[in-house]
Every structure is written in structure tokens, then in C-alpha cells.
């Protein structure tokens, strides 16, 4: 054993290679990675541009999310709040009408004197009950010889109907009915188009009601002369005379038309008198307020109508918890 050990210790064998330091391997790998990245940079666009685009996409996603949440809140809360407020305004308007409408008994009676200066030219003393002239004494001066005073009247046996009042009341009732169709328990299930459809129906009804009071329908003179209301007058007027009662804005107006044949050409002279009606003024104020509320809600919803992908079915969890 000793000899063997001695031979081993005196042997000049080949030295084993020292291990490669770990830091050198790491550096070589880093160099290879840098070379690869260098090649990638040569083929790709500027990394700064990519970062900017990513940031822009993130901002757009966040904006869309915020809009979605606001849209959900508007549908769930604000639409119903504004419709409630609108209904209160329209019911107040309905209570101003002198006809039965939305728990309003109507049949309000008022007396008016409509005249011009001098009063002999045209004068009417009348009683308005609801939407009907139940009594009237009318006098006017003829515009052609013998220039005498013409008199006629309206009696309770044959009253004069003001169709404009009933038309406006019907349109107002339609607007209230449209609101009742979307009470608190109603949930909008589609896009903003559904809300705009409801608001559009209400707007159209209110506009028709308002226009029926401020812009009377024009009728040709021959239609006025042959109209059924002319049969309400006692005594009846000659066929070259016509009387008309109508509403225009907050006024009740009487107009008298007198036909004249001048060398084969028919022409007519007219004269009118008016009186202010308080309830008409109040009705128009409430109708205008209702239209403004509708337009306010329509403008808000119209913003979201630009985003066709906004639907109640696509609610996010954050929107549902809002």
C-alpha cells in the first residue's frame, strides 16, 4: 500500500480543467439575447410608438367603460326620475283644462266680452262652459249698404263647440298614457333607441296638443259659411256672412266675414275681437315646460345612441353595482 501511494503521489498526470465561471455563461447568454433583440428592433416599429398606442387603447377602453356605467345609471334611474317629474307637470296641466281629463271634472263656466272700438263694429257677450259656447249675443255692423247693425245669438239648445280644446285635451291624455306605459317596474331591454322611441311619442303628443291651441286650422270662406256651427246661430245669417270662434294662443277670438261681389269678383271683409283666457295661458305654460323636460331627456339619451353596442344585456359587473 505504501508503495502504491508513493507512486501515485509522484505521478505527473494531466490537470483537470477548471469549471467555467457562472458569470461568463450569463454574459454570453445576455450577448446572444441582445443580438436577437437587436434583430427584432430592426424589423419592428419604434417601441415608443407601441407604448403610446397601448396607452391610447387603454384610455379608450376606460372611457367606454365609464360611458357604459353612466348609460346604465341613466336607464335605471334618471329616465324614470324625469318621467315622474314630467307626469306631475302634465297632470297639473290637465287640471287646468275646463273639460273632464285625468280626474279633472271640468265643465268650468266663464263669461267673456269680446269687442272692438267702436263696439258697434263688433261685439260678443258669451258664456264658455268647458269647450262649448253655451250662450252668446253677437252684433256687428255690415260693411256694405245699408250699413246696418246685424244681430244674432247662440243658445243652450244649439251650443257652439270649440273643437280645439277637446283636441288638445286628447293629445295631452295620450302623452300621459305613454308615461304610464313605462312605470317604475319597467326595465328597458334594448338600446337607447327604445328610450328615444318612448320620448318621441310623448314629444309628438305634446307638440300636437300645443299646436292645436296656438294655430287654429284655416278654412276657406265657403266652408265657414256652410259649416255646421253656422246653424247654431239664431236667427240664421245670410249666405254672404260668416261667423267664426276659435282659440289662438291664450286668446278666444270671434271673427266676422262679409262677402262682396265687385264686378263679378268675390272678395270678403273681416273684423275680429278677442279676449284673454287665463286657463289657456296656464295650459300653454305647462305644455312648454313638459316639452322642455322631454327635450332635456332626449338630448341626454341621444349622446348614448351614438354607441350602438350599448345595451342593457351587455351590462358589466361594475355597471350592475352602480
From TrEMBL:
Residue spans of biased composition, Low complexity class: 34-52
InterPro entries (alphabetical): RAVE2/Rogdi
Superkingdom, taxonomy of origin: Eukaryota
GO CC terms in record: RAVE complex
Residue stretches in coiled coil: none
Pfam families assigned to the protein according to its UniProt record, in alphabetical order: Rogdi_lz
Region called Disordered, residue ranges: 29-53
Stated family: Belongs to the rogdi family.
Protein name per UniProt: Protein rogdi
Source species of the chain: Glossina palpalis gambiensis
